[in-house]
Write a structure and sequence with these properties.
Two copies of one chain form a homodimer.
Chain A: E1 3-6, E2 10-16, H1 19-24, E3 32-34, H2 37-46, E4 51-54, H3 57-67, E5 72-75, H4 82-93, E6 97-98, E7 109-116, E8 122-129, H5 141-146, E9 149-153, H6 160-175, E10 179-183, H7 187-202, E11 208-212, H8 213-219, H9 224-232, E12 237-241, E13 247-251, E14 254-258, H10 271-284, H11 289-304, H12 315-322
Amino acid sequence: MDVLAIGNALVDVLAMVSDEELAALGIVKDSYELVDAQTADRLYQAMPPAVEISGGAAANTAVGVASLGGAAGYLGMVRDDQLGAVFTHDLRATGVRFETAAATSGPPTGRALTFITPDGHRTFRTFLGAATRLGPDDVDEEAVAAADVTYLEGYLWDPPSAKEAFRKAMAVAHGAGRRVALTLSDPVCVTNWGGEFAELLEQGKVDILFANELELLTLFPGTLHDAIEHVRGVCQVAAVTRSEQGSIIVAGAETHEVPAAPAEVVDTTGAGDLYAAGFLYSLTRGDDLVRCGELGSLCAAEVISHVGARPQRSLAELVSAAG
Amino acid sequence: MDVLAIGNALVDVLAMVSDEELAALGIVKDSYELVDAQTADRLYQAMPPAVEISGGAAANTAVGVASLGGAAGYLGMVRDDQLGAVFTHDLRATGVRFETAAATSGPPTGRALTFITPDGHRTFRTFLGAATRLGPDDVDEEAVAAADVTYLEGYLWDPPSAKEAFRKAMAVAHGAGRRVALTLSDPVCVTNWGGEFAELLEQGKVDILFANELELLTLFPGTLHDAIEHVRGVCQVAAVTRSEQGSIIVAGAETHEVPAAPAEVVDTTGAGDLYAAGFLYSLTRGDDLVRCGELGSLCAAEVISHVGARPQRSLAELVSAAG
């Protein structure tokens, strides 16, 4: 296994809205918030016609790795309901190994209400649902020990039992001499859990860090330069994504700036997830860091050029066409 | 109410496949078949990652009418499950009046597995599910009597009790001095039920007929000219759609050829449904038949330019922009 991703299993409910419609719902653009079932239902009733597409940040990354031709697995919790079946189908259909048993009781499969504005920005209201039921017992130790990289999303820090699963997966991975990757997921996530993320980094529990500029600056306030220097000292590799400005990759004394790949932005949902997919696929193949970043940029460009956070075409073919 | 549409309530499960993948599934391209739950499940397991979008031919037409600014209603049956909630949400969110009570037992909400090939053609395998439970008791007589046009899809002829609902709606509409529109839906549908459709036409039970060329020639075999002359004698208005060749509209002694609107074809799902939406919206406003056809062409062009059978932008704005 190249990459085993662990995350909150969600179905994305995507709708295009104007900035005015979003404001009328009382929602601040570009924000991310967890909501309870009742609020999710209320917002859904007020939402324009939507499209359902399997999502979940780490799951999107697993799909990206599989689409590139890598061996990918996923751990995450759905309910045994229709949306859970959709999530499971879409993941397995891409070739991702997904064996976590669906919950047979409790809340329904989680969903991310995603409001896409004309500029391609997305605003989330997430009902975690069954994803909150993921716990340490669901961590397949053999799978983690067999994966070159175990990739964890910061969002997992939200449900308390998933946090325990997260910690267990880290320990198992390192016990087996494998690498642990972490994405900071979202500035709000860092605001809530940054202290613990920083602690993980200081303790050497994260080998590879993914963050966008805003997430990194939320974790290590100050200048971007200082934040990058800080992160350089606490993990082996860090990739900091900067939207159309590309990414900065640091590893020991190395620093690389990699440009973004050209894209006509329709919906930025999944950009970071697919950057991580390209990067990790390349890394597990032993490529140099510039190549890792280039592959990340290429995969991100594909996913932002259409609605939905998973690739619509074979990334392996895309890479092959790009040379 | 301008248009009350009655049809099989379905969620579309859309996936892009190559011609080779479709052949490997043993499915003949461009075909339409009803399948049972077991077959639907087997095909779904073999299907690539998909997107869920509310569909149902007549429901798509109702959405189109509402998107144009018309008053539209829908009668159709879902189950009280997650996909039923998705269908209900998406319909109501466009402003379509939809009050049919969801089934609380029996099969789940129906779905149409839709395989889209690179040329934009679509191949359907439909599991009707709860849609088979629509019956005469679900026909809201007041709503039918209040609608300028009651629009029925030929697909309704498949579930036996829906056929009875169909016949009742026709009788109620005509009893109230209203117009009945019928779409032939699909060549396979015409092969199965053409005798009964022809009988309805001969008996004067259909005022407005929608058919594509192949459906019409399945109903009245021979030359297109002869088929059109036949249909001219058995309904007030007939619109025969011919893909990129536009449409032919006949009414009494009138014959009009209306060109297709330019479009880059991504997915032809919903082309006929949205043509009917534009046509009927225009007709209920008292426009001449050429204008009806032009509006139909414009709406069809919007829906084939993206994945999914419902408009992604306001059709009222589209029409206003087109002048």
